[in-house]
Amino acid sequence: MNNKIRLGILGGGGDSLIGILHRVASAMYDQYELVGGVFNPELSESIAFAEKIGIGTDRIYKDLDALIAAESALPKEERMQVVSILTPNFLHFPMAKKLLENGYNIICEKPLTTTLEEAKILEDLLEKSKTVFAVTYTYTGYPMIRQMREMISNGAIGKVQKIDVQYYQGWINPIIHDAEKRANTWRLNPEKSGISCCVGDIGTHAFDMIEYVSGLEIKEILADLNYLYKDNKMDIDGTILLRFSEFVKGVIRTSQIATGEENNFTVSIYGDKAGLKWEQENPNYLYLLQHGEPLRVLKPGHAYNSELSLDGTKLPPGHPEGIFDSMGNIYKGVARAIKKEKYHPGEFPTMKDGIRGVNFIEKAVASHQQGNVWVKIEE
Q1: Host H or E run for residue 232
Q2: Of the candidates 282, 329, 274, which has an alpha carbon nearest to the alpha carbon of residue 140?
Q3: Which of 112, 207, 236, 255 is most exposed by smallest CB count within 10 Å?
């Protein structure tokens, strides 16, 4: 008997990195079966892609409306149970809205929507639908990030007093300095990407990561963004100061014009007893810093790690795990939720995390536009 969760995917066709990441992640723990979807705006290309990856073409649809109509006509035990949204940002809201209105579980790429107003509409619909909704802040699935979260929660570093997160890439350099290219890239088009490029794309990862590992909520931010050219409407670099409380402060440094950088995401949390540091490009090492003590390096798979960390570790110590594994852990948590099994609240980011991420994007842009002033993040 096949008890796998029936999965549909929107977007992610062709040579999409995010597409293969989600497909591999969904297959990782044998919890899902990809049964169809809409991989491309052109039906013929979607069908060709389905044939290429070896799934049947009978449930490849022209668009989302056709998918919902056809799937709704199937017996309940055959319908898609969850749909992953991997499309450009501007399509997240209308797709998620239709899916929620029709009772689907959803796994959505970040940012959740392009506006906070849209995000709140989805929140209301989720309350009515009572389905499962995950937002794929991928890096929360890394075992040593989960270990970091549990150590901070258990008081290993004492009271948090300083947070410093850097997310540096350089990929947009060949585009931003060419007027024609920057005018024709969807990432720099507000109609497709939303009001922000850098903050919306990678800054939101940093924001979510901080709240995930620290257990604290960011209350206020002050942003100084860089657009580099007057005709460029989207930020591609920025520094954002953070206030958690009167005596707990932090900073997010984020850039897509950090020449030569690949995916340099570094998370540093300092308490009054110790500090913890993690680097995405070396994700199997969690550094524990203590005053007057040698630097300690924690690695995945060892018995000294938390249950949450070990649950997300598939290989014995010394065998590297990476971003596919991280996304796979998120899919595994969603599967547990869909099956109504017991799961840890840290297993996957939720609608709340998605809403706070969109809130952060809007407030960062507002802070910059208002003259680099402090603005509050809504509760």
Answers
A1: none
A2: 329
A3: 255
